[in-house]
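Running this now, will post back.
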Amino acid sequence: MSLDVKQRLIVALDVDTRTEAERLVEALEGQAGAFKVGMQLYNSEGPEIVRSLMQRGGKVFVDLKFHDIPNTVVQAGRVMTRLGVFMYNLHVAGGQEMMRQTVAATHEEAKAAGVNPPLVLGVTVLTSITPQQLREEIGVDRDLTEQVVKWAKLAQEAGLDGVVASPQEIQAIRQACGPEFLIVTPGVRPAGSQLNDQKRVMTPGEAIAAGASYLVVGRPITGAADPAAAAQAIVQEMDKAGR
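Update: finished.
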């Protein structure tokens, strides 16, 4: 990608309140390309938190992982477009009809509003899922990487801009879907960090070297004593790996 390396870092604001989120955004000014608002913060503060962060100059990735019948997800996509988000996601497991209709509605809504459409991403296999869980609990007998690639190709065929996938599947997706398809990668942990509930992880440098488009990093930055310094260290590692 031709983006400045800082623009490829997305910080996950996995906090409960607007006050905490705004404090982190202020502390991280100029250190990240976007901020992720997930279920925890969105369900606490609602769409107003997205507006607030954008008013402060931040780009926002709304991570609500829509998964429902086509009409419901289409309308949710329209809402995200009207909010002016940078990107949002939906589950590829919802099927190609759901994805196609949502992409079309997103672009229609953006055109009507005279704005750029948000990037629409497909969630593949969550980074907390192990191959054993995929097989024994979810009932998918396919190899985990093969399943991720199958869903990535389905998302690309439906017109999505990219997928959310663990760093361990980056190279396989890149090979299957080409250089322009976006791969947004959670499950990124600097060496020595706690894994928490992430199972399929890489360091920031490894993920960039493998071909990730954007990295999503939360607790290693937001839980650090100095979030800005933690973000700077990650960006430096990303920059070195991308040269």
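DSSP finds eleven helices and eight strands in the chain. More later if anyone needs it.
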